[in-house]
Amino acid sequence: MNALHVVADVGDHDDVRSAVQEVVRAHGRIDSLVNCAGVAAPRAFAELTRQDWDRHLTANLIGVFNFCQTVAPHMPRDGSGRIVNVSSMRGNLSMATARGMAYSASKAALNSFTVALAKELAPEILVNGLAPGLIETDLIAGLSPLSRTEAESSLLGRIGTPLEIAEMLIFLASEKVSYMTGQIITADGGSELGNR
User: Fold this and answer.
1) Which end of the chain, C or N, has fewer beta carbons within 10 A?
2) Three-state DSSP state, 89
3) What angle do CA 22, 9, 88 make, to 5 degrees?
4) How many other CB atoms sit within 10 Å of the CB of residue 168?
5) Can 103 be counted among the known catalytic residues?
6) Dihedrals φ, ψ of 32, to 5°?
7) What is the C-alpha to C-alpha distance for residues 194 and 103, in angstroms, rounded to an integer?
8) Which long-range contacts (CB under 8 A, 24 or more apart) does 44-49 make?
9) Signal peptide position in this chain (predicted)?
10) Residue 111: how many other CB atoms lie within 10 Å
11) Bigger pLDDT: 150 or 117?
12) Rounded CA separation 186/3 (Å)
């Protein structure tokens, strides 16, 4: 594997363009794009500020748009290009949360964007989304004991691991996925189906 570390502010289109140009100079083209940058800062509706709203939309939606629009012209047009957008189970209507309104709304918009982009780029580039449930990362470090208990009462009885999500992302970004586009795959341990 030939990796290149590039840093970019996903919300800054010019910064994204510079980062993508650096990758294209080094590798000639981009076969797969996984958009996984994001933020989550739960707030009640009455406490939600415009800055909170903008921050969620910028990181969780506009950043994905910036990368997709900049990378797509550098992808192969033979059906082997892959875009995978990391959403969240909270982007699914039944899993939206009151205190996570900005997060849920941004991820729901990302799901819609993913499907629309798949329609536009098919059949040359396949576009799918992965909507993880609670995953043991720094993002959930401050999770309340009640929320943790709810997550652990999913059908699988536990919170997911980063490795489980990484393996699904690798699969979705690979040529093994050749007959699927415009899909949002939920990986939440059965949380959306209810408690055990």
Assistant:
1) N
2) helix
3) 110
4) 17
5) yes
6) -135, 145
7) 21
8) 44/98, 44/99, 45/98, 45/101, 48/101, 48/102
9) none
10) 18
11) 117
12) 28
User: What SS3 state is found at 144?
Assistant: coil
* Residue tagged active-site, from 75, 103, 131, 173: 103
The pair of structure tokens assigned to 161 is: 């691991």
Give the whole-angstrom CA distance, residue 72 versus residue 192: 32
Handedness of CA 51, 52, 57, 62 (dihedral sign): positive
Kindly state the tokens that stand for 118.
Answer: 């798949």
d(CA 155, CA 189): 6
Task: Give residue 148's identity as a one-letter amino acid code.
Answer: R
How far apart CA 101 and CA 116 sit, in angstroms, is 23
pTM above 0.85, yes or no: yes
Tell me which of 11-25, 64-78, 150-164 is least confident. 150-164
| 72/32 Cα distance (integer angstroms) | 9
pLDDT top residue among 115 and 155: 115
Instruction: Record the tokens describing residue 128, joined without a space.
Output: 């799918």
d(CA 189, CA 122): 30
* Radius of gyration (C-alpha) of the chain in whole angstroms: 17
Superfamily of domain 31-193: NAD(P)-binding Rossmann-like Domain (3.40.50.720)
Q: For residue range 73-98, what is the model confidence (pLDDT) as tens digits?
A: 999 999 999 999 999 998 887 777 77
